[in-house]
Amino acid sequence: MRIFSGIQPTGRKHLGNFIGAIRQYVDGQARAVEADGLAIFCIVDLHAVTVAYDPVELRELTYDTAALLIAAGLDPARCILFRQSDVAEQTELCWLLASVTAHGDLNRMHQFKEKSEVQRELISAGLFFYPVLQAADVLAYRCDEVPVGEDQRQHIELMRDIAERFNARFADSNELLIAPQHRIPEVGARIMDLQDPDSKMSTTAAAQDGTVYVLDQPEMIQRKFNRAVTDSDDPPRIAVDPQKRGVSNLLEILAACEGVTPEEAAAELSGARGYGDLKAAVSEAVIEMLTPVRERYELLRGDEAALEQVLLRGADQARAIAAVTLGEVRSAMGVGPVT
Ligand code: AQP
Known about the structure:
The protein is mainly α and about 350 residues long. Helices cover about 55% and strands about 5% of the residues. It has 13 helices and five strands.
């Protein structure tokens, strides 16, 4: 069993990233070790350059993200953790896979539409091409499973199509590339913004109060939950209900922290006096979940040389796998000399 996922080096990872993705990585690492498989995680700095960014900050954020992933439980002795730009095989594979990617499919990607709308100066071709590089990232490792949040479902479906189209065109329909399955958590796959529960919690969100960061101090977390938007039902009703977006989101977060369903989380609060009790319960659960991660992060982040060592070692391990896939793809496509 082989697992792969990538995460952008925006150091300020939020609660949505943590619940939707990072916690699943740690779980995937444990399952892979148990099954004698392999778990591979990539900090995707080449994806981060598709929108406006600061080159000096990008390096800092890459170390921030590496430290955060290790603090959350990824263990470089039990998984491969590396930086995307260190493995050039992935970018070459991206170009080769472009030949079996339909322009029309890329045009349909929700993420491109959403992100291009907020670019002020330039909508880069890189942003449009993002899903092809993401497909190359994953397909280079012939993995079975990709842990992601709900917002990545469409990109995983596209990479499955790319793999199948490649196999049909160049590999006599044999599985030279493996079409992976997404692994989207049942609870917490789409955490919503606390100030605008109709939008997903996101790095680029306008309302800072609506986004809880993994590294926020406990007082800040408490403040953000206290200010979370609920509704004006009188008497207040703590229930999972599509009409009650704010309350449902708080229950979803509480449930994800406690490992129960949102309905069970609501039942636990049947004696609550109002939304204040719900907000207090969620903020306490989130603080309990994130505090050890923040404390470990603070210990790890200072030693950039050690983080760099981890990433370089991971890149060597990743390259050894990606080079084999790339070699077979080149050969199947008739690119380069006969090997
Ligand atoms: N709100 C969310 N709820 C659950 N999962 C989420 N993810 C993102 N937002 C939520 C998952 O986090 C993983 C890493 O995402 P990324 O760092 O590659 O960035 P992203 O997908 O572009 O999401 P961000 O961090 O919110 O950035 P912006 O603001 O740029 O959209 C992915 O598995 C994602 O599904």
